[in-house]
Specification:
This protein is an alpha/beta fold. It contains 14 helices and 7 strands. Bound molecules: S-adenosylmethionine (SAM). The site of S-adenosylmethionine (SAM) has 23 residues, from helix 2 and strand 2. The site of S-adenosylmethionine has 23 residues, from helix 2 and strand 2.
């Protein structure tokens, strides 16, 4: 469903696996343009309830406009913040629990395409990258201009899985000694120069792609937020309720997979231990042994969906 410039990804699968029903309460922790939220409501004739959270205040304003145009606002509660803080949002709207939750991680097309947000190097813009522009977290420009070479290397290697992380970090540090780095295209050009010519030539993607992903993940504490959310959400979803998570890069998908596996086990003792001493209890059942991916037709219609992976678990 397209509510804004962003086309919601794997909406049919989200509806199939969450199976929304009238009178039930759902969390959409990444409201974005409101596409998944609108689909949950459309499916139930507006009779489900959705708590929509987004870090991005501008996204919330636009989603509210779109949902209100569809007549769905009476069924929706909107809260600005991180899905890691969903407990606070539940308290604010006085919901004790949920019948399901969806996360569609990362950023929206609208955010990517707006040069002022600094997510893309295809158009010049300030190196911001904060999803929540009102918070006091460092921007990408602050990270790039103040982090030590070692810290930059670690960020680019760990969050971008970039083999050239050391070279890129050293080149950034050498450049910023002459003049601080302010813009997206400027940073992309510096990274391109740090790349060995042979790799630059053979690479299908722009050499800055992985470094931009790494900076975005670091600026927005993306993996920390996901871990905090995963740790807390089972306590709030009623038995039989489902958690559906769409991720777009392997670090997120791995975190979801490992967390699902751990919490689907009744015992997490090391294999060499003969008797269970951990008293661990499974809290969920994995419904998607392998991640689901968008259909070829969806990828053709919305190429940005191509790297999406959906995992679903049911709370016991
Ligand atoms: C891929 S878009 C979601 C699109 C949405 N599902 C739709 O159908 O329109 C991701 C959204 O999640 C938001 N976001 C990312 N991380 C977040 C977090 N930790 N907490 C809350 N919102 C977050 C982004 O600001 C962005 O609007």
């Amino acid at each position: 469903m397209s509510v804004d410039a962003h086309i919601a990804v794997m909406t049919a699968e989200i509806l199939e696996w969450l199976a929304p029903a009238s009178g039930k309460r759902y969390l959409d922790g990444t409201l974005g343009a409101g596409g998944h939220c609108a689909a949950l409501l459309q499916e139930t004739g507006g009779e489900a309830r959705v708590l929509g959270i987004d870090k991005d205040g501008q996204a919330l304003v636009r989603a509210e406009e779109a949902l209100s145009g569809m007549g769905y606002m009476p069924s929706v509660k909107l809260v600005q913040g991180s899905f890691a803080d969903f407990e606070k949002a539940l308290n604010a709207v006085q919901w004790p629990d949920l019948d399901g939750a969806v996360l569609d991680l990362g950023f929206s097309s609208r955010q990517l395409d707006d040069p002022e947000r600094g997510f893309s190097f295809l158009q010049d813009g300030p190196l911001d990258m904060r999803l929540d522009q009102t918070d006091h977290n460092p921007t990408a420009a602050e990270l790039v201009n103040t982090s030590s070479s070692e810290d930059l290397k670690r960020i680019i290697k760990d969050f971008g899985q970039e083999p050239m992380a050391g070279r890129i970090a050293r080149t950034i540090v050498a450049r910023r000694e002459k003049k601080s780095i302010a813009g997206t295209t400027e940073l992309a050009a510096i990274i391109k120069r740090a790349y060995p010519a042979r790799r630059r030539f053979h690479s299908r993607k722009h050499p800055a792609t992985k470094t931009f992903q790494a900076l975005r993940i670091a600026v927005n504490s993306e993996l920390e937020d996901l871990e905090v959310f995963l740790e807390k959400i089972p306590q709030y979803v009623r038995p039989g309720g489902r958690i559906a998570i769409i991720s777009f890069h392997s670090l997120e998908d791995r975190a979801v997979k490992q967390w699902f596996r751990y919490h689907a086990k009744d015992c997490v003792c090391p294999p060499e231990q003969l008797y269970c001493q951990c008293a661990h209890k499974a809290v969920l059942k994995i419904l998607t042994k392998k991640p689901l991916t968008p259909s070829p037709a969806e990828v053709q219609g919305n190429p940005r969906s191509r790297s999406a992976k959906l995992r679903v678990a049911e709370i016991l």
